[in-house]
Amino acid sequence: MAVELPENVLLTKLNELVSWCRKNSLWPMPYATACCGIELMATGASRHDLARFGAEVFRYSPRQCDLMIVAGRVAMKMMPVLQRLWLQMHEPKWCIAMGACASTGGLFDTYGVVQGIDRFLPVDMYVPGCPPRPEQLIQALIDLQEKIQREGTITGREFDDPEHQKPKRALRETANAE
Amino acid sequence: MPKQQTIDALDAAFSDLGVSEFRGQLRVVVPRGLIHEVLGTLKEQLGFDMLADVTCVDYLDYRDAKDRFGLVYVLANTETNERIVVRTFVNDPEPTVPSVVDLWEGANWPEREVWDLFGIRFEGHPDLRRIVLPEGFAAHPLRKDYPLQGRGERHNLPVVTRSEH
To answer: Which of B68, B72, B112 is nearest to B90 (CA)?
Structure first.
């Protein structure tokens, strides 16, 4: 995934150019399971237009997408399917956990609902809300675009960074407490 | 609205069945051994050709409860628009009930759901396996002695990280 290249100014500018291209054409894969899916559709509709920000087409095939927006609660029966979809997406790829259920399990602290997809998938951006307003989702997309511009490399080296691999703070604290 | 002739026909066919009515809903309590026969009579002779649902209630800590599981069969007559609820009670060590898939094909999935969530076996069911929970799930979660948050099954899935190394 990461190609070994020497670091110089040309490469930095190239990274910036490629990150700019990638951030402005994030094609979402709408993993719309539940109520947040309706808000996702509303964000893609004409009033709050997600296409203004480059998320022009919602591709339903993971092979054609950059960005997976997990909108809605994920049952434990569905989690391996979601992981398979994630693995089918091409690099570089990002993930937005939309809504309370995708971020933490939300309202559904029950035997069948995964308490946050970040337990089993790498997530880049969390959107709070039940459901989040379309403006919140757009803000998350803008923040993700800033993150891509800040950290992006042409070879995808930012994904090898150990900071990205560390489990999230809340999961680490509960692991230490046990 | 249940018709009087349905009640009379049931009383004629089976003795002391526990037919009662409450605010327009007719309810029949059947002992477990007679359930298949009563449902068959309701379907073939009294015209209740639609099985609306099969479900169950767990009376574990309920006051005045004599049996643990109460099965509920909701039948409907599509010609006269009558609805009737048939109840039967089963108990805990190996609760089993004869399946009604031979009467109504549509009972296949509701009975699978009751097996999945309550653990009641249906004898004669062609394909009794879990339907709403994953196959590896080891418990029957809608029983009253199963905790709401589960016993850790929901945390026990493989983790996918970014690196493939």
So the answer is: B68
